Amino acid sequence: MGDNLARKILKEHLVEGELVPGREIAIRIDQTLLQDATGTMAMLEFMATGIPRVKVGLATQYVDHNLLQTDNKNADDHAFLASAAQKFGVHLSKPGNGVSHQVHLERFGVPGTTLLGADSHTPTAAGMGQLAIGAGGLDVALAMAGYPFHLTCPKIWGVKLTGQLQPWVSGKDVILEMLRRHTVKGGVGKIIEYYGPGVATLSVTDRATIGNMGAELGATTTVFPSDENTRAFLKAQGRGELWRELGPDPDAGYDEYDEIDLSQVVPLIACPSSPDNVVPVSEIEGLKVDQVIVGSSVNSSFRDLMTVCRILEGRRIAPGLAFHINPGSRQVLENVVAHGGFMMLLLAGGQVHQPGCLGCIGMGQAPGTNQVSLRTFPRNFPGRSGTKEDRVYLCSPETAAAAGVYGVVTDPRKLSELLPWPEVKNPDSYLVDDSGIQVPPKDGGPVEIVTGPNIVPFPEFPALPDQLDVEVIIKVGDNISTDTIMPAGNKVLPFRSNIPAISKFVFEQADPEFAVRAAEKGDGAVVGGENYGQGSSREHAALAPRYLGIRVKLAKSFARIHRSNLINFGILPLVFKDPADYDRIRQGDRITIPGVRELTLNGATEIPIRVNGAEIVTLLHASERERRELVAGGLLNSVKEENHG
């Protein structure tokens, strides 16, 4: 049996371990990606290693999240990132240049390479045939320092694509079909590899959309072949020399299989408030829509936006509806302008914003009370929009444009009554503008790092004690996202480089008193259900609770990136051996873990804990390396011990 593409790339980059699912491996990283919501802390972590210059092939830093400058904080942090990028050898994409994932696809992605990004939607680069993985900022900081990236070897899930998408159906509907079938937990522990004759019918940007939202399935990453479509895209970007053909062997096998006939995919929509709450658009037709937003990290490419332009050409946005467009990059916007699309949007009554994440991360564009918002975004977790009890639906640009025309949720195939299907394709040659990218000097020696008052040094954490005696500060349910643990938005994210300040917002939506209670109680524990920590890669969802004294998190299961982040900051991620034991613990209970340091260090899988005088058995699934980090009190402590030991 031959190799699939994911295994080929993993083999080429493997530096430790064997490619056996479930075992720990380490891979060499070729490129890294930071954005400003995660990168400020990651840059501080990189500085804490004491390494004078990045040791990775290409390091990139994007300013795309915290674009609102309502006071000094974001502007100060952007100055810090710009100077640090110059000092340490990092390419910087300036504010307004675009969303990290779209810009990276356009200007930096290389087929067959590895990309590690401090953003869960890093797998957008799957559209380029790149093996791109989202991780916590500390993992990315260490990759920048030249360390390999450790992960549990995933299964490879082969999804065969046949047929071709029908008019008015696009890549967003394909990934929504995957979420409809498999839920937000369906991809945990897996790399999704798309193969088969249907792949050739999908553009690079449609593939990027599918890769981006593989994160919502919980997948380690997604990968597509590098084929003639990839070559054409790179050539159109003036980077054709970087292309190489990559694909699975003809007799390749996979650990799991699925198949999608693209011709049978219909327009789909994810209803509030989870990306897997998916139904056909036709099922909820007629629902009044108050707001539509096209763009962000997904569906913000030229093809996506120009499709919307063509649908709106010569028409007006429906009365009482706000229609926003967030281009993925300056390049996308310039090419839309060159093809006449900008005037189509303006004359239709659309509101065109600067390229950036904006409403997707709660930076403006929040809907009003009880308003229905249709978004081409990747996530609709409760309150993520900035409005409590929001009603956010996720859909394709075609479905979004149809709502813009009719004012209600409408199957976009009905647009054929008004106009022919636009069938927009990506340009044969893009207008390329790299004026928004700051290239670092060859030697950053004389560069002075600009540090504003909101930049607070990385906190120091003590090692794991011999015994833990902690109180359960909060108990939560299944599928708790990192948005619930550590909210985003314009009020919270400006404190991303100030852990004492941002820690005050931990669990603010679920329990406004959590931070005060945790700080008062000293060492504490959090209890959760299935898939705890799904969603965003933001390490602050582990780092801020650790600052508040959380030493243990017990759950039925953990999302991959959040589990790694917990270990990175010395929080024990314990899993109930018997999930029914979840019901035996309440908020306020005391948990004692005798001999925890020795058990962790000696490789014990079973960790007995005492709750209310009774014993419950929990499991610690951790490699020898991860156990050393936990005992040291976190990854940075462990690295410092190795360097000075």
Automatic annotation (TrEMBL):
<dbReference type="InterPro" id="IPR000573">
    <property type="entry name" value="AconitaseA/IPMdHydase_ssu_swvl"/>
</dbReference>
<dbReference type="InterPro" id="IPR006250">
    <property type="entry name" value="Aconitase_put"/>
</dbReference>
<keyword id="KW-0456">Lyase</keyword>
<protein>
    <submittedName>
        <fullName>Aconitate hydratase</fullName>
        <ecNumber>4.2.1.3</ecNumber>
    </submittedName>
</protein>
<feature type="domain" description="Aconitase A/isopropylmalate dehydratase small subunit swivel">
    <location>
        <begin position="521"/>
        <end position="578"/>
    </location>
</feature>
<dbReference type="InterPro" id="IPR050926">
    <property type="entry name" value="Aconitase/IPM_isomerase"/>
</dbReference>
<feature type="domain" description="Aconitase/3-isopropylmalate dehydratase large subunit alpha/beta/alpha">
    <location>
        <begin position="8"/>
        <end position="407"/>
    </location>
</feature>
<dbReference type="Pfam" id="PF00330">
    <property type="entry name" value="Aconitase"/>
</dbReference>
<dbReference type="InterPro" id="IPR001030">
    <property type="entry name" value="Acoase/IPM_deHydtase_lsu_aba"/>
</dbReference>
<dbReference type="Pfam" id="PF00694">
    <property type="entry name" value="Aconitase_C"/>
</dbReference>
<dbReference type="GO" id="GO:0003994">
    <property type="term" value="F:aconitate hydratase activity"/>
</dbReference>
